[in-house]
Amino acid sequence: MIKKIILILFLTLIQKAAFGEVIYVSNEKDHNMSVIDGNSLEVIKTVKVGHRPRGIILSKDKKKIIICTSDDNRIAVVDVGSLEVEYYLPSGPDPELMVMDDAGKFIYVANEDDNMVTVVDYIEKKIVKEIPVGVEPEGMGLSPDGKTLVNTSETTNMAHFIDTATLEIKANVLVDARPRVAQYTDDGKFVWVSSEIGGTISIIDPVKFEIIKKIEFKIPGMSKESVQPVGVRLDEKRQLAYVALGPANRIGIINMKTFEVEKYILTGQRVWNLMINTDGTKLYTTNGVSNDISVIDIDKRKVIKSIPVGRYPWGVAVRD
Amino acid sequence: MKNIFYIIFFYFLFIFSIIAAEIQQIKIVHLNRIIEREPTIYSINPEIINNGILGSRMGIKDNNTTGKFTNQNFELIEQNIMPNESAKEIFEKFRKDKYKFFILNVSKDDFNKILSSDLLEDALLINTSLKDNDLRNEKCNKQILHTAPSYRMLSDALTQFLKKKNWVKLLLISGVNERDKQFADSIKVSSKRFGLKIINEKIWDFNHDFRRSADLEVVKFTQGEKYEVLVLADEGNTFGDSGNSFGDYIPYRTWKPTIVVGGEVLKPTSWHFAHEQWGGNQMQSRFLKDSKRLMTNIDFNSWVGVRAIGEAITRTKSLDSKIVLDKIMDEKFNLAAYKGKPVSFRKWNGQLRQPILLVTPRALVSVSPQIGFVHPRTELDTLGVDQPDTKCRFN
């Protein structure tokens, strides 16, 4: 009987471990990906993926990890079971960030060195179209209805609104210097764009193509120049936005209704990208200079653990 | 029937004129002084062709990618000034043709003559190569922006680094030309500012070819001096940065094991091809692809100048140089220049405030301002003459 109980306990544990949350982090300078177990919060495996891995997402069926390997000019597709690179997708030169449509068919890739957005057919494994945009395209955001793609270009300082049916640019909005990340709200009424060098977040009305609000950050004892917003994640449940502030080594928590900054949380150094887990309890940030990721308990608004990963951790994806 | 023809004709004329009017044409003139190269000690450094011009070209290209979405078209007019030609005359020729925006890579003499021109009026000039402190102080002019860092910014950047390392006892060796002297003077001011001590100063005035005898000469020259770091004030043979004179022959030849900084050995500069942080590698690879050579500091100074004009015109949609200048000097105006911090212009002297790189010929060593040097406005203002100390008075 006891043996049986132990066995059941053991099996539940295994199951929990096997089906718990997994965090994937791309390490830009180490050419690999750290795989972190969400329960123990330890790195369980490091996977070689190719040169200069940056943007990282999950496929819609959550069976594959899709990673831009910028210096290899292609996208690596890793199987979540075997944790090995299964095949590559073409991406155009220097892919950096990408977004996948809800149907799981198209991936929109920003080609940083090539001033293009490349549309890749994930099923057919081929390039469908290249759209010329501004200098150093970076942030990619897709509207909830999938009809509009927002791409930001770092040196042109614009958010380009691209019609996904025609794949043509339909509007451009000038934002502050070096826009990095674009995120639609769930209702599709607003687009949040971070400007790293401008030090602001622009909230854009995607119908009128106008900036309706600019959020600035004031951190006591810190010069304006060191506050450099990059990653943006929207927590629709709590109506809070989390913004990674780069060399300010903090994330800002912003009320999405009042646009007020409610709190700053200290993280590792040069915090860039972040991800909320599926049940909305934790936020993971990549810290490029301290070479770790911070695990933040969202309700407590506190860092509960720092996990050392590879050099220059860049992007993060989470699978439940 | 004839009437209908006329109506159609004028209708199309009207439409075309609207389309034509919608695209704003902006012309920026790049004046580039060509000099007769002095013979260097050993001519291993090939002359950099189109130094600066290639930076401006990339700036124009970047402006136009924005411009294509804002209906603005930027064009670069490249003009070399040959050794026998007058910069002032060429400048005036452009002014008579109503050109307003100028990127200057000229000698100090050219610069002063251009400033004395009666046709200066509302021209907006950007200095990309002259580091002279007086141009940012008593000889400043509100129509001039300096993207080249001043000697004081460079000496502050270098001494901050030495202070941070706690290498504070300096032996200062300067060359004999005017630029060497200016850098040496700046080093003295910076040393005082950041608490370093100059143990001794020496002038290097040997003017013979010492490739064969450097071992002996430098040993004797540095013998018996009690210092921690040897600082070179060696600004080379020409304005800008092409070609150095004696500094390359000092390291490893000193009496005692010595750290040498300054000259080309550890050089404070606005840009270097080894710089890859903060998106710098994107800039380097873009430049290399277009220009087929590595990017110099003068290329960078020109690029950031063209970008400043472009950014201000994109945002104001104005070609009035006064409005453009006001925009550039606006407190909120800043540019992303791949240096980790936004760069902007000091309203008290038109100097670009920017991080300064400390580089060896092939590698980046550090970036100033160093951590720990603080300033109430921005750490970047710990480099160069600050507002309360400026002798610049715009009128």
CATH superfamily annotation of the largest domain in chain B: Response regulator
Q: Largest beta sheet of chain B, briefly?
A: 5 strands, parallel
In the sheet with the most strands of chain A, the strands line up as: 3-2-1-28
Number of helices of chain B: 10
- Bulk shape of chain B: elongated
Domain unit count of chain B: 2
Q: Which regions of chain B contain 5 or more consecutive residues with pLDDT less than 50? A: none
CATH superfamily of chain A: YVTN repeat-like/Quinoprotein amine dehydrogenase
Number of helices of chain A: 1
Strand elements of chain A, count? 28
Largest protein interface, residues of each chain: A-B, 27 and 23 residues
Strand residue content of chain B: 15-25%
What is the CATH-assigned architecture of chain A?
7 Propeller
Poorly predicted sequence stretches spanning 5 or more consecutive residues of chain A: none
Could you tell me how far the N terminus lies from the C terminus of chain B, measured between alpha carbons in angstroms? 63 Å
Strands of the widest sheet of chain B, in order across it, are 2-1-3-4-5
Largest sheet of chain A: 4 strands, antiparallel
Assembly state here? Answer: heterodimer
CATH fold annotation of chain A: Methylamine Dehydrogenase, Chain H
What number is the mean pLDDT of chain B?
A: 90
